[in-house]
Design brief:
The longest helix is centred in the last third of the chain and has 34 residues. By secondary structure, this protein is an alpha/beta fold. Helix 1 links the parallel strand 1 and strand 2. It is globular, with a radius of gyration of 22 Å. A seven-stranded mixed β-sheet has the order 14-13-10-11-12-15-16. The protein has 13 helices and 16 strands. It has three domains: 256 residues, ATP-grasp fold, B domain (D-amino Acid Aminotransferase, Chain A, domain 1, 2-Layer Sandwich), CATH 3.30.470.20; 67 residues, 2-Layer Sandwich (Dna Ligase, domain 1), CATH 3.30.1490; 35 residues.
Length: 415
């Protein structure tokens, strides 16, 4: 049993912007508070998606957004939802855009939602790769070499400076869902690949970053909660051991492991810039120079926040609810050895890693708990729905591939 008591009279609302139907981080937030008896509501663009079938979800509100909407209008819609809930609720940002919206519209939302006292500009600034890199340079925090091209000549120049292969990413929240230059983190192999992707395009939302080779790096992430007084009573780390796609994609397998170097970095950054609330960092240890390098700052719940939990039973979502309802957030050491498996990516990652001859440890069957992104014996329906969504996606892609092949065969016969 957790070593704290939550205020069950204060509900929570999971806020998101954009359209995505399969996301285990939001489901984790629903479960972690719902298991404590806290009423949890969620915004969703469709009623029939996996997370909405969790037994721990109290209710949903229709919320179809694209990221193009006027923030003031979205804030007004949120206030209307707050009125329907009928009492002040803890707002939980499920994605970067929601974190920016909640912070920048806090003055309007404050009558309906409980929000951490973060400076309104800060989530957008830290989520922006340009803003984060500026803070890293100013504070002496290690980071991969990063460049922001504004023209095709700079694109070529910076790419040659960084060397191939290199990483390409979208710079900021909202732009990555409204007008993305790349679908996520992309490895660019050579100049021909670079120009094929970006020649003739508006480069204002693009960054180029040095590639840290998988064979010479370790991937870590930190999930923390920064309290109003600037301390981080919940600040825990884990090592990412496998991801999909390999080397650049989201976590498929991780293990909780206490690493003071990365948790102290998170606390230092949060205190230095005045950040408050939930945050998570992606950090790479570069074995070539022995430095930890900050790759991303996400001012929200991380998809894999349930990997880490304190001995008191706290994760970042529970800590946020305790703090915003005026309850103490007990500081206690993290549980170590806890595994996370994300089923939607792990089976593909396992095959890919084996194909490449890359070996990683597997969760032990004895003594060490394993958390799964989707499966939970006390809440199985979201997992079963996720399987249906994944199967439908695979069949759709196979069908398109077959049709493409048939069309190409027909063209060859006509010639």
């Amino acid at each position: 049993m957790p070593d704290f008591e939550v205020d069950r009279s204060v509900p929570a609302l999971l806020v998101k912007v954009g359209r995505y139907q399969v996301h285990h981080g939001g489901l984790g937030a629903i479960r972690t508070l719902g298991r404590l008896g806290v009423p949890v509501y969620a915004l969703t663009e469709r009623r029939v998606i996996p997370a909405t079938r969790s037994r721990y979800l109290t209710g949903t509100f229709d919320w179809s957004t694209t990221g193009h909407e006027d923030p003031a209008r979205l804030a007004a819609q949120l206030c209307a939802i707050g009125e329907r809930i009928g009492r002040p609720s803890v707002a939980i940002a499920g994605d970067d855009e929601a974190a920016v919206l909640l912070a920048e519209q806090a003055a309007v939302l404050g009558g309906h939602f409980l929000l951490p006292p973060v400076p309104p500009h800060l989530p957008r600034e830290l989520n922006s790769k340009r803003g984060l890199y500026g803070h890293c340079v100013a504070l002496g925090i290690g980071a991969p070499r990063t460049r922001f091209p504004g023209s095709e000549s700079e694109l070529r120049e910076y790419a040659r400076e960084l060397g191939y292969p290199l990483i390409a990413k979208n710079v900021a929240a909202f732009r990555k869902i409204t007008d993305p230059l790349v679908p996520g983190t992309v490895v660019v192999r050579d100049e021909a690949d670079l120009l094929h992707r970006f020649r003739g395009r508006d480069l204002s939302g693009l960054l180029l970053q040095e590639y840290l080779p998988h064979e010479h790096a370790q991937d870590w992430f930190v999930h923390f909660f920064a309290a109003p007084d600037g301390t981080c009573p919940v600040n825990m780390s884990a090592r990412k051991l496998r991801n999909w796609p390999p080397g650049t994609g989201p976590t498929a397998l991780a293990r909780a492991q206490d690493n003071p170097a990365v948790t102290e970095l998170a606390a230092y950054l949060a205190k230095s810039v005045g950040y408050r609330g939930i945050g998570n960092l992606d950090i790479r240890y570069d074995q070539r120079d022995g430095r930890y390098k900050l790759v991303d700052f996400n001012p929200r719940i991380g998809a894999n926040f349930r990997t880490v939990e304190s001995e008191a039973g706290l994760d970042t979502v529970r800590a946020l609810h305790l703090s915003l309802t005026g309850r103490p957030v007990p500081a206690s050491p993290p549980k170590t050895g806890r595994w996370l498996i994300v089923e939607t990516g792990d089976y593909k990652a396992r095959l890919a890693y084996r194909w490449r001859g890359m070996s990683v440890p597997l969760p032990s069957r004895r003594g060490q708990p394993t958390v799964r992104g989707w499966w939970a014996p006390d809440d199985p329906v979201p997992y079963l729905m996720m399987l249906g969504f994944e199967t439908a996606g695979v069949l759709h892609r196979l069908g398109r591939a077959v049709l493409t092949r048939l069309r190409m065969g027909g063209r060859r016969r006509r010639r």
